[in-house]
Each structure stands twice: as structure tokens, then as C-alpha cells.
Amino acid sequence: MSMTEFSAANRKYRRWYFAADESQPKEIQTNGVAVKLARQGWFGAAHLVCHAVVKDISLGGAGVLVPATIQVPDAVVVMYQQIRIKAQVVYRQQVTDKLMFLGIDWENAPYEQRLKVLRKLSRKSSRPPRKSDKQL
Fold this sequence. Notes:
This protein is mainly beta. The chain has helices at residues 3-9, 111-122, and strands at residues 16-17, 33-40, 46-58, 61-67, 75-80, 83-94, 99-105. A 6-stranded antiparallel beta barrel has the order 2-3-4-7-6-5. Strand 2 (33-40) and strand 3 (46-58) form a beta hairpin. The radius of gyration is 14 Å and the shape is globular. The N and C termini lie far apart (31 Å).
């Protein structure tokens, strides 16, 4: 079983992909949603770590590309427009000498907050919605 098959088979939540062709390597995909990753500071302040591109998203987390030269901490805040959600980096894979793919998990964030992020970002995905998606 390939890593892709293993990952897809063991996913807890359905994922929305931003690439029109999911088989295309992440480093050459041109689609995605720009977000910011920050470090949580004192009194809720967030300190920018880097810009990132969301490549896929689910109710439990997301896959993002970041510059390989940036040391992203294990605990981050994902920021998109007015939305902020705390997440943990649970997976890291170097995809080129300039790009790192991170798997981030926000399952510990409040359900309503995760749902808000999913609704906002999934609208930009390339996957057509299914009937069951309308329940979100």
C-alpha cells in the first residue's frame, strides 16, 4: 500500500483539495489558498512565522506548503482573513530544496471554529460538492 493510499484510508475526515489534479506533485501545483502561520504570543498576540499555501483541508486539519528555510514551530496559529485557529504540526516532509509540506491538526480547536475555517476555505477547492457536504 502506498503512503497516499495509507493516508487516505486512515483519514478521519473528508478532504477538500485545491489542485485540479491531486496526482500532480505538490511542488508544481499552482492552486491553493494563501494563509499566514504565526506563533502564539502573550495575551493572544500572534507573531508571524511565515506565509503558507493550503493544498488540502478537512475538519481535522490541513496540508500546507511553507518555505523550507523557515523553522515552523510545532504549535502554530493559522490566520486567514479574520479567522484564527490554533493547530499542531503533526507531519513534515521536504518536497524540494525550497519547500516543506506540513500536515497540521486543529482537531483540538472548538468544533464551531473548525467548521468556520472549513466552510470558508472549502469554497475555494477544486472538488465539486457532494450532496452530503451540504450538511456542513
